[in-house]
Write a structure and sequence with these properties.
Helix content is 30%, strand content 25%. The protein has 568 residues and is α+β, with helices and mostly antiparallel strands. Strands 6-9-10-22-21-20-17-11 form an 8-stranded mixed beta sheet, sandwiched between helices.
């Protein structure tokens, strides 16, 4: 005997005449005379059930109460095309109240904080559980693809040694070894490299990663990545393989065929799109007009390293110009100049700084059409490109230049291996210190760090970074050189990474891999930029969980056992 014979999303016209038992939550109640129509809901869908008033009165039913009903499936006179079960209804002969529900503390208009506090009620909403189902489907599709290519799913430790990897570690005190701490892994980086040395040539896991950093819309204290490492593959082979993984995920979960992923160097991506994670669904590419602009009499153009612009065919208001000007200043540009095209001439803005022939030459060079607006930024190259990249995204959103259900992915390669920290006056790894320099820089990277590119590759989709990877340093002497260059001396290297350097002594394969953000991927597939929407129990902007009250204080006994004291 079954507790229920069907789910609330299962019955169809072919089931008419059957006696069935359903269980679920009361989604809505509608009364018509002596007859009551109730939509019964579970995570699979909704079924309309019909009860007479006497039965409903005995139940003392309210919305969100949990009930169990038995009855006969009948065909509806007027089908509800909005529901998969809309051709039928169940006429109830017996009903049981399993648990009543008090009035709901949240509704569809609840604030984010209230939604997080009552997350278990929020998850009952169809759109929320649909996102969690999509997350499940994506995870299963990834596992299916990786398993079919001889990958082993291996769990790496959660309590690990604290090592410098960019963000602050979350640390866990040891009761047994007082005064010592574990860290929660920012990523399984060292352990997956150890697995390659161990001969496990194809590893993956859906890894939990923890980073103690300030939060934003696409960042949480804990996140999940599809983590993998592969031996005896070049970076281009790894990219081809991962492209196949994403094609499989989209086809399996959304029946969506991804286009071929174009590849851009870091310099090309910054030059054309003003971003190392470009949205390639639309045009508005940055154009270099440095030579032409320096012929003008505009001092800002003449004295800047580079002048770039975007040509916009849409009508822009003074308010738009002001908003974009404020935007570029956030990214350290001095300002935004503009000029409008009219009858093969420039008017307004910086037009007065160009002669008529210079205006003609500029318009021809840009291919600018009549009534277009040209937006200029002049500054150092990185500031110019980054700030104009933000203008490009502003225009995308303002004029709805992309479809929300369109997905375009691309590879970014040849990143700088090092970046200069202006505050601390030191060179730091652009990705992490275990990334291999490109071959031409291996022998003398210390002498020209600003020129060095690495065998690094990022995957971007619709303007968001999905994952980052590299070919790893598999030569222990080269690894020591890189560590020394960024300020980790031999003694510190041994203390922090001794177990990895020791392992390399015993034969290490060439290997590389990636960490691919599962939360961000699912969020974008679900049509949202907020990863909290696809995490079951996310934290708020203060890294707190309103539902369970974490983080919280612990009592003095626990503190004493751990040998800890809070400094106020």
């Amino acid at each position: 005997m079954h507790y229920r014979t069907h789910t609330c999303g299962e019955l169809r016209a072919s089931d008419v005449g059957k006696s069935v038992t359903l269980a679920g939550w009361v989604h809505s109640i509608r009364q018509h005379g002596n007859i009551n129509f109730v939509d019964l809901r579970d995570r699979y869908g909704r079924t309309q059930i019909v009860l007479d008033t006497d039965v409903l009165k005995d139940l003392q039913l309210r919305k969100e109460s949990v009930i169990k009903v038995t009855g006969k499936v009948t065909k509806k006179e007027v089908p509800n095309k909005a529901l998969l079960t809309g051709e039928i209804e169940v006429h109830v002969t017996n009903a049981e109240l399993i648990n009543p529900a008090e009035p709901m503390p949240i509704d569809d208009n609840a604030s984010e904080e209230m939604r997080l506090k009552y997350r278990y009620l929020d998850i009952r909403r169809e759109e929320v559980v649909a996102k969690l189902k999509l997350r499940h489907d994506v995870a299963m599709a990834a596992r299916e693809y990786l398993n079919s290519h001889n990958f082993m799913e291996i769990e790496t430790p959660i309590l690990v040694k604290s090592t410098p990897e960019g963000a602050r570690d979350y640390v866990v005190p040891s009761r047994v070894n007082k005064g010592k701490f574990y860290a929660l892994p920012q990523s399984p980086q060292l352990y997956k490299q150890i697995l390659m040395i161990a001969g496990v040539d194809r590893y993956f896991q859906l890894a939990r990663c923890f980073r103690d950093e300030d939060l934003r819309i696409d960042r949480q204290p804990e996140h999940t990545q599809i983590d993998m490492e592969i031996s005896f593959m070049t970076s281009s082979e790894i990219r081809d393989f991962i492209e196949g993984l994403y094609r499989h995920i989209f086809k399996k979960t959304m029946k969506y065929d991804l286009e071929k992923f174009p590849t851009f160097t870091y310099k090309e991506a910054m030059s054309r799109f003003g971003s190392d994670k470009p949205d390639i669904r639309f045009g508005l590419e940055l154009q270099d007009v440095t030579v032409l602009a320096k012929n003008s009499t505009f001092e800002a153009f003449k004295t800047s390293e580079v002048v770039k612009c975007i040509v916009v065919d849409h009508e822009l208001t003074r308010k738009d110009i002001d908003e974009m000007t404020n935007l570029v200043k956030i990214y350290r540009a001095k300002g935004l100049a503009y000029a409008k095209v009219a009858d093969i001439k420039l008017e307004s803005g910086v037009a007065k700084f160009f002669s008529e022939s210079e205006q003609h030459e500029l318009i021809k060079h840009l291919g600018a059409r009549d009534k277009a607006t040209i937006l200029f930024v002049a500054d150092k190259r990185k500031i110019t490109e980054t700030s104009l990249g933000q203008v490009r995204n502003y225009l995308r959103d303002k004029f709805d230049m992309v479809k929300k259900d369109e997905f375009k992915l691309c590879w970014i390669v040849d990143f700088p291996l090092f970046s200069w920290n202006e505050d601390e006056k030191i060179w730091e790894p652009e990705h992490h210190m275990f990334s291999m320099p490109n071959k031409e820089f291996v022998t003398d990277f210390e002498k020209r760090p600003g020129d060095v590119t690495g065998d690094l590759y990022d995957l971007a989709m619709n303007g968001f970074e999905l994952g980052s990877g590299s070919i790893r340093v598999s030569n222990p002497e080269l690894q020591k050189r890189i560590m020394a260059f960024i300020g980790i001396d031999e003694e510190s290297a041994k203390e922090k990474f001794g177990f990895l350097l020791e392992a390399y002594k015993y034969g290490a394969p060439v290997h590389g891999g990636m960490g691919l953000g599962l939360d961000r991927l699912v969020a974008l597939m679900a049509g949202t930029n907020d990863i909290r929407e696809v995490i079951t129990f996310p934290k708020n902007k203060n890294a707190e969980c309103p539902m369970d009250g974490s983080p919280s204080f612990i009592d003095k006994k626990q503190m004493d056992e751990l040998g800890l004291d809070i400094r106020k």
